[in-house]
Amino acid sequence: MNAVTRPAALVAGAAFDHPEFDAHEQVVFAHDRDTGLKAILCVHDTRLGPALGGCRVWPYASAGEALTDALRLSRGMTYKNALAGLDLGGGKAVIIADPRRDKTADLMHAFGRHVERMNGSYITAEDVGVSPADMEAVAEHTDHVRGTARTGLGDPSPYTALGVFAGIRAALAHVFGSEDLAGRTVSVQGLGHVGFDLASQLHAAGARLIVSDIHAPAVDRTVAAFNAIAVDPGEAHAVEADVFAPCALGAGLNAATIPAIRAAIVAGAANNQLATPADGEALKARGILYAPDYAINAGGVISIALARPGGDDVLVRDKTLAIGTTLTRIFDRARDENVTPERIADRMAEERLAAAGR
Questions:
Q1: Catalytic one among 80, 92, 103, 284?
Q2: pTM for the whole thing?
């Protein structure tokens, strides 16, 4: 095997043989010599339309870890967009970098050039480690970007938080017979744009807050603003609460954490919360109601998909608040069929994808 073909074969093998590979249509490994950009852009499924999904900047320990995240997240976007009723497929991008140390405008410019090379098969947007200003930088080099001032409502995170808030209320109604948050305790893990906004809405509705984040200033800000109680992020799932709201990274619901959960409901903004399908069954066995992540956190993608430059956000807010109605249907079907909520959510999304394929 010569030096030219060997890297390509290794890259292809890394994707095709990966346990998270799920008939993805494109997996692009992107590098820029001048800025040091290392990115993976994944298109999972375009039966409903071009693949829309955010760009995440994170200091992954390895390229393999980044690939795992990109494959899982892009598949999740396919299901999220389908369940939300959007005419869009699923995709995702990850950049291997520390967002507080390595991220620059030039890095985002380079990423934008790679998005442009995909000719519209992938549309990017904001995600973990990426700010609205970063997306404006990306938009200098491609039109295939959403969540900017030019393409609509700008920062999508308030709508993600709004949808999670509506989903939490639906979950409370299902478990306790009332969606009222007054006096309820919610543990919010992760206090970035979405987590802080969610904490604000919960506080305004009368909830007691327990908060955590790996970034101490974010914790201090939230404690001061909402009279919250701070805990270590590694203990957020184990505190006594009505709702555990994971709003950080994925795979936090696993064999180690689920036995320690002391909340009746898990409903948060993080993507890919279940480490494995068996973890959804484990939550059900413990009597814990799980709001499928891609159902409850779809507000952001709804905002960037439906927003129009110069328009108001009435349609976006109405469709985002309807996430609560969708979750109520999922919870009721899951109860009636004695299966986990994520299985029902998957079926509903797959039914729409199959219809598009026909």
A1: 92
A2: 0.87
**For residue range 179-226, what is the model confidence (pLDDT) as tens digits?**
999 999 999 999 999 999 999 999 999 999 999 999 999 999 999 999
Contact 37, 110 (CB under 8 A): yes
Between CA 215 and CA 219 the distance in angstroms is 7
User: Residue 233 gets which letter from DSSP?
Assistant: G
Residue 126 is classified by DSSP as B
Query: 3 falls in which pLDDT band (50, 70, 90)?
Result: very low
Is 92 considered catalytic here? Answer: yes
Please list the residues that pair with 253 across neighbouring strands.
274
207: left (phi over 0), alpha (psi -120 to 50) or beta: beta
- Is 132 in contact with 155 (CB distance < 8 Å)? yes
In angstroms, the CA 252 to CA 248 distance is 9
Read off φ and ψ for residue 116, nearest 5 degrees.
Answer: -60, -35
Question: Looking at residue 253, what DSSP letter applies?
Answer: B
Pairing of strands 26-31, 38-45: antiparallel
* Contacts for 87 with CB less than 8 Å, ≥ 6 apart: 48, 49
Cα separation, 93 vs 126, whole angstroms: 10
